[in-house]
Design goal:
Length: 473
Amino acid sequence: MYNPKSTKAEEFICNDEVLASLEYAENNKNNIELIDKILEKAKLGKGLSHREAAVLLDCDIEEKNQEIFKLAEKIKQDYYGNRIVLFAPLYLSNYCVNGCVYCPYHAKNKHIPRKKMTQKEIKEEVIALQDMGHKRLAIETGEDPVNNPIEYVLESLKTIYSIHHKNGAIRRANVNIAATTVENYRKLKEAGIGTYILFQETYNKESYEKLHLTGPKHNYTYHTEAMDRAMQGGIDDVGLGVLFGLESYRYEFSALLMHAEHLEAVYGVGPHTISVPRIRKADDIDPNTFDNGIDDDIFAKIIACIRISVPYTGMIISTRESQACREKVLKLGISQISGGSKTSVGGYAHPEDESEEDTAQFDISDRRTLDEVIKWLMELGYVPSFCTACYREGRVGDRFMAICKEQQIHNFCHPNAIMTLEEYLQDYASDETRKVGEFLVKKEVETLGDKKIRTVVEENLAKIKQGERDFRF
Ligand code: SF4
Ligand code: SF4
């Protein structure tokens, strides 16, 4: 029985409700009256239910689809402006006891080198990341209670936060590790993590169990209820995602939004972020063996419909996607991207090490350096942001969402984006990127409507140029 307020996986992601929503969407995909009504509701910027969103996703009336894309662009602009937050993944260990058939780290893959970084190696990686200009990381490990116990993750977080190389600092470490206990989530919270990220991979229980035949991840219920335990452990911000390509995208889309509705219904705060990875080629993995691949057009539609449905939830896209694809979807709703990423263990400090590619979790499409990505964003009219202010100022969970819902977050994000971009330009940018950036910073300062804020930003920019760092609203 479907119940978004239940904390039982099979009740808040009820298979019957997903199927009923898909049928409802199929039956109404040409119902102009209903589509118009849903679009009118969406224009209020307060989101949509999974059923309403499913109708928009299925809609194949060209004119209405154009309205959907336009509205997604408007909501993106209203809530996130022209800012794009940057981050990088950091793979600590690729030991894994699970059998996920889409991931090269699966336990049976014997030809991938296994590697777990020592604290000294992590330090080298973090210095390399700081020297690129990164301030925000997503920490990744495989699931292995012997090689990657929670103590290892906690110790690594301490190392990561302790390193200050030149003007560098990792100011926010988000963590993407396997589903765990309330007690362990509490430990992660105490260690000062930002968002806890866990991808569902697929919400379809039957497919999930087939795709995860061995290892603890086989337990659909435990995995699906992980965000509940994370919130019970005191973690304020959680990041959802599915791996598009494993199951029907229509199924995943509805279930993903049901998961968001469940978190909102029970904990009063929806997901902080949603990631939209698509299955990629990797060692021992051929994406063509999966039947549910989605093309760029459907991918863009999914992103637009998520943007409309959960306006306050940030959306993340990684370097799995090509430059062209990233360019296309940025304006539809993406608020965070990775740049200059390595998906291998130890790949930042030792890119020259040929074997590093062998430990990669997936092939990267966008291989540009962070500097190239920053310049590209600015030339497209975006303001790259290295801001990490909210969680350091205690604007997390429901407090964060309340500010978002009042559309006040812009007053924090925009000045912070300008100041952190200036830090990047001073410390890490190439001459050419700095030139483009300085012009942009000047222009963006002029757009700050609040005179007081503008004065503070101008003062802080002058201080940054003189060597001071870490200003924030
Ligand atoms: Fe292990 Fe995660 Fe890869 Fe599954 S997806 S094999 S849990 S690293
Ligand atoms: Fe993110 Fe908060 Fe910074 Fe805005 S002010 S970019 S929401 S951390």
